[in-house]
Amino acid sequence: MSDAKTRAGFVALIGEPNAGKSTLTNHMVGAKVSIVTHKVQTTRARIRGVAIEGDAQIVFVDTPGLFQPRRRLDRAMVAAAWGGASDADVIVLLVEAHRGVTEGVQRILEGLEEIGKGRTVALAINKIDRVQSEVLLALTKDLNERYNFAETFMISAEKGHGVKDLRKWLADRLPEGPWLYPEDQIADLPMRMIAAEMTREKLTLRLHQELPYQLTVETENWEERKDGSARVDQIIYVARDGHKGIILGKRGETIKAVSQSARAELEEFMGRKIHLFLQVKVRPNWLEEKERYSEMGLDFRDGNK
Fold this sequence. Notes:
Number of strands: 9
Helix content: 25-40%
CATH class of the largest domain: Alpha Beta
Oligomer: single chain
């Protein structure tokens, strides 16, 4: 392929927590590169998934959900989200059909007045299967009156409805130029970070209430073995002793189930045998430690008030 015929660029998916950004990223890429749970605020870093559409390479930036930040981690996540949007060639705002124009959506629209200047901004109304067509039409009209979107798409990221049309439209709007990544690469996160995200997803799905937001997972060691397998050692950092007990579970059942589930997904993703070992450590102030933010792909300074 000659450079003149190819296109490549960044597409930032923004929206409130749980709007479906991670699900859409994974559907567009055709593989799981982003953490998907029923809980909000689970995506922490700007996760990049790479998709091919014809002669175009689309680099999807799945940003953390935009919300009212309360803690340092929250502020760093919101800064990462707006940073992802400001660096992108095209921005797609995801809005949940059944929730409509919430206070959070209104705040994002206000932010787009500045960030969206000189950029192509599209609207994707997600989870369309949850509402009647007249509600969709009214919401489309309302949102387009509030902001001048280049195009509006009605999609179901989970079921794949409308996703192909959106991907093709995005591909046509990227700048001409050489591809940014090798053809077979689907994400630009290091494998260590993808592995840590997989384990954190399993913890988030298994645990309840606030605990998932009080923990982080880091891949401490990755050892390639002669037989083609790999040994992966990970640390789960929690803020309190009580949290450690919850993660370990009765007779270690919880940590064992999480380890088995994460290992199975990692093996499927990599297509080879993985030996996964998890440790739980209590670090009361991990939310204030610069190193933890670097491991998550966030800027510690963005958490300053």
